[in-house]
Structures are given as C-alpha cells and as structure tokens.
C-alpha cells in the first residue's frame, strides 16, 4: 500500500491489478498487516472553509480586503448622497418641476429594486469577484455619462442604469463577511462611531489585533457621504453639477482598478466544485496572516451543496429559510 498526499488531499492507492492477482508473500504478510493497522487508526483529517477561516484568524489579509471592498461601499454612499444635491441643481439648470425632482431619486431606487435579484443570482453562479468587477465598470461608465447628459430624459435613463449597477454593491459585504472569523464577523459589519473606526484602522495597521477589527462598511459609508458633501461645497459653486457627477466616480475607478487583486470567495469555489482554487485562497490568507495552513482535506460544508441550480430565488423560501427570509425583508 502506498500513501499519497497531495495538496489539501490524502488518498490511498491500492496495488496494481497484476500484483493483486499474485499470491501474498508469507514473509511480508506481517509487515503489511502492521502497515494497514497503523493506517486504520489515523483519523480522516478534514476541514471546511469556515473552520479554516476561523483558525487563520483576523489579520493583514482582512485589513486589505476591508480597504478594497470599502471603496465599493464608499462609492455606493456617494451615489446615494449625490441624489439630494443633484435634484435642486437640475431644478435651477433645467427648471424641472417638483415631480421631476422626485423622479430623479425614485428612478435610482427603482433600478436597485429591479437589479438586486439579478446581481445576487449572477454572484451565486459566477462568483462575487466577477459580479463586483462588472458592477464597478458599469457604475463608473454610467456615472461618467451622466455628467454629459444633454437633457433631463437622458439624466433619468442614465441614473436609472446607475441604480441598476448599485444593486450589486451589497455583494461586497457578503464577500467581506465570508472571509471573517465567526467571532469578529458581527463586530466588523455593524455600526460604530466613525472616529473610533478611524482610530481602529490605524491601530489595526500597527498591531493587527482581532479587537481592532473595525466596522469598515459603516465607516466607509460615512466617509463617502462626508466626502461627497465636501466635494459639492467646492465644485458646485464654480464648476457646476456636471463636474460633480464626473469627479464623484473617483472611488469607482479606484475600486475597478483593484478588482483584479480582489480574492474570490473560497465558499463559492467549494460550492462550485473548485476545491483547488479554494485551497489557493486559504493558503493566501495563511501567508498574509502569518499562520500555518491547516493540514488535511478540504470538504464541503454541511450547509453547502454542489448543485447546478445554485442561486435560485425560490431557495430562499424553503421551509428551513422561509421565516428568516421574510423577517429580513420586512426589516429592510
């Protein structure tokens, strides 16, 4: 018997068919029995993505991911904040009515509502990284076109397409949460005072301690809103709303440029049968965090199934998830 250990896997190969047809050698029978007995007591060491993330802890990998995905959340905040600035500017520029001012905001949220299911399905089928990359490109493109819109109807169309792309930005939260250890996950996605978050960021850069796993998304949302208002105070009186729309796409461009370095979800790779890619991502986490990689074989979580029908909307309403889904929809 030969024990072969590959990357993340252990399997046992039997002897060849020719050797199985031969009679056993009495001199080696005892040796083989001892070898088989020693192998039988070795446990089948397996681990899941969740167990690996918990073991590797919070470190430099999560700090970098916080900054990258935080740019997406910051851009989302700026696109939302600009709605309260754009409507009065269009009223002065094109003398639009109050109904039309309200429509410039409504069309964005309508695009978000119609696209959220589409982006969720796309992320479950092709990965969160690919969906976020496409989202960043579309947001930057339509946001930039909005700055040169020749009429109010063009503004409505382009802002509606911006809202359609914004529907994907919550996937950044999902991607970030899937790389967080269980103990730090809740602390990293709930609201905390912005000044404390900024302090935690500098502390995390210096010490990389788990207790300074700052609440990055609420932080970046607040920073994006403040930055948009500050930008409007400088740009609007001199250059006008067109330049404000154009310059507000800056974080989108930055996020689009870092998307190639954005890691894909290891849970997605395992669920889609790409175990080797999941192992590569986990080894990257171990290297960045300075932790040893887990030994054994990576297996699928009990709650994760390899199915060609991943991403179906009706899966949210299966008996085990129906109450949770309905309550979350009601809260939002």
UniProtKB/TrEMBL annotation:
Primary localization? membrane
Q: Which domain of life is it from?
A: Eukaryota
Where found in the cell? Answer: Membrane
* Location of the region described as Disordered in the Swiss-Prot/TrEMBL record: 1-26
Q: Mind listing the GO molecular function terms for this protein?
A: transmembrane transporter activity
- A GO cellular component annotation in the UniProt record: membrane
The text of the family note is:
Belongs to the major facilitator superfamily.
Q: Which PANTHER family match?
A: MAJOR FACILITATOR-TYPE TRANSPORTER HXNZ-RELATED (PTHR23511:SF5), SYNAPTIC VESICLE GLYCOPROTEIN 2 (PTHR23511)
> What is this protein's record name?
Membrane transporter
């Amino acid at each position: 018997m030969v024990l072969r250990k590959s990357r993340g896997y252990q399997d046992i190969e039997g002897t060849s068919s020719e050797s199985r047809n031969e009679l056993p050698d009495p001199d080696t029978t005892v040796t083989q029995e001892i070898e088989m007995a020693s192998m039988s007591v070795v446990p089948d060491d397996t681990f899941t993505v969740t167990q690996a993330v918990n073991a590797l802890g919070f470190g430099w990998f999560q700090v970098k991911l916080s900054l990258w995905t935080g740019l997406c959340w910051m851009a989302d905040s700026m696109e939302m904040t600009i709605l309260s600035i754009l409507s009065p500017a269009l009223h002065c520029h094109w003398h639009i009515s109050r109904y039309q001012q309200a429509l410039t905001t409504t069309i964005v949220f309508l695009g978000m509502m119609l696209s959220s299911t589409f982006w969720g399905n796309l992320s479950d089928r092709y990965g969160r990284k690919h969906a976020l990359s496409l989202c960043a490109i579309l947001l930057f493109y339509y946001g930039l076109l909005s700055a040169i819109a020749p009429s109010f109807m063009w503004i409505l169309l382009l802002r509606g397409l911006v809202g359609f792309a914004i529907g994907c930005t919550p996937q950044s939260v999902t991607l970030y949460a899937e790389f967080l250890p269980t103990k730090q996950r809740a602390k990293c996605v709930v609201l905390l005072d912005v000044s404390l978050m900024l302090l935690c960021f500098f502390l995390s850069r210096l010490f990389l301690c788990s207790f300074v796993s700052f609440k990055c998304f609420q932080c970046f949302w607040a920073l994006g809103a403040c930055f948009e208002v500050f930008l409007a105070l400088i740009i609007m009186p001199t250059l006008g709303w067109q330049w404000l729309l154009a310059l507000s796409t800056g974080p989108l461009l930055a996020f689009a440029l870092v998307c190639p370095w954005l890691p894909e979800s290891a849970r997605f790779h395992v669920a889609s049968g790409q175990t080797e890619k999941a192992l590569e991502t986990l080894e990257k986490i171990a290297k960045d965090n300075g932790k040893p990689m887990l030994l054994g074989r990576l297996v699928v979580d009990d709650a994760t199934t390899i199915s060609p029908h991943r991403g179906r909307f009706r899966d949210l309403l299966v008996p085990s998830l129906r109450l949770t889904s309905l309550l979350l929809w009601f809260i939002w």
